[in-house]
Amino acid sequence: MWRKSEVRAAERQPAPSALVRDGASTGAKIQPDSKGCPCKRHSLLLRATAVWFLVGLIQPASPIAQYNMRADLPAGVRNAIVRVSGITGSEIDGGGSGTVIQIHPVAHGWWLCVLTADHVVGFSERWAIGFGNGGYATGTRTGEFTANIMYRGPVTIGDARADIALLGVFVADMNGNGQLDEIPEITPLSVAEPPHYYIVAAGYGWWGYPGDPRRYNTLQTYGLFENGRNTWDNPDSVEYEDITHPRGQRYFYQRLRANLDFFPWWDWPPSEGEAMVLPGDSGGPTLQFDEYGTRRWFLTGVHSVGQGGESFVQEGAMWADVHAGHYQNWINQACDTIPEPGSLCALALGTLSLLVCRRRNRA
């Protein structure tokens, strides 16, 4: 996510060679909040996860205080959450997070459909993802891949968009064995409506630790995975976020909202502190476990915007996700078009040449 006070350079237009697709209008009805906000229920955890555009790095820090309340995510779910970078020319525009939500097997490899935030990738010429901890993804290191396709989020009203985007990432079957050896074992996360209040926010953004009075002091360290628990404030309400990015793009979308509380509320230091989205977590997922139904993890939100300063986030600060379930049809339809026939043909030729080179080297 980004801060409202952030000042960025003028928007760059994608290069003609980049395969960029604009989302179609969702036809969503625009209306004021229809219900009052439910009261926040007791939650479990502490940590700072992300929502703003990444603006800088300092020395990596020790793990944040999480009071043994971090969510125990299955390895496949954890591995589906990736680092995401936008790249223009030779410059990294910024780092965010994203989630693999579909895998499409094709000849000589697989296509991954990665859900992230539009403000992370929508202003760049090229894009890359990275699995596991690391710095900005460039697509040139082990566990990193270039995104070949980018779909910007659907237009919602006027020139405004939902702050979501999809990346199409091709992973070649370099060993020719029909196995996804190039990436860790992952469980793609389906998009769904919130089944309840209780959530786990995740991402690769800045960290935070409790600081007096009742706040998180932030550490500008990007690229290390973390997650934490919180609760949705408004899963049963209809609310909209309306904000303009410093590069001029207006975002208008149905949102899910959470805020930061410490427990106990009458004492300090805290025994628990809720997850808070920070810079670098933008595009990352909010996850929920359907305990009484399918007993699966689902993605219900995409980190978009949050409140806070350069060095701390005060208790009561709010962060908002794009309500992913509201845009589920657009997300699924866009993922179904990855890969496009023209893209597949071009990449198939490139993949064959890579396979030939590798086999010659082994010989």
- Chain-averaged pLDDT: 79
Question: Any low-confidence stretches, pLDDT <50, length ≥5?
Answer: 3-18, 24-68, 343-363
Q: How many angstroms does the end-to-end distance come to?
A: 48 Å
Strand content: 35-45%
Question: What are the main properties of this structure?
Answer:
mainly beta, seven-stranded antiparallel beta sheet, six-stranded antiparallel barrel, 22 strands, 37% strand, disordered N terminus, disordered C terminus
Provide a descriptive summary of the structure in words.
- The chain has 363 residues and is mainly beta.
- The protein has helices at residues 75-79, 118-121, 328-336, 341-362, and strands at 19-23, 47-48, 81-88, 91-106, 109-116, 126-131, 144-157, 160-161, 165-172, 198-203, 207-211, 215-219, 226-231, 240-244, 250-259, 262-263, 272-273, 275-276, 285-289, 297-306, 312-314, 318-323.
- The protein has a 7-stranded antiparallel beta sheet, with no helix packed on it.
- The longest helix has 22 residues, at 341-362.
- The N and C termini lie far apart (48 Å).
- Mean pLDDT is 79; it is low at 3-18, 24-68 and 343-363.
In short:
The chain has 363 residues and is mostly beta strands.
Topology:
Blueprint: E1 19-23, E2 47-48, H1 75-79, E3 81-88, E4 91-106, E5 109-116, H2 118-121, E6 126-131, E7 144-157, E8 160-161, E9 165-172, E10 198-203, E11 207-211, E12 215-219, E13 226-231, E14 240-244, E15 250-259, E16 262-263, E17 272-273, E18 275-276, E19 285-289, E20 297-306, E21 312-314, E22 318-323, H3 328-336, H4 341-362
Parallel strand pairs: 1-7, 2-18
Antiparallel strand pairs: 3-4, 3-6, 4-5, 5-9, 6-7, 7-8, 7-9, 10-13, 10-19, 11-12, 12-21, 14-15, 15-22, 16-17, 19-20, 20-22
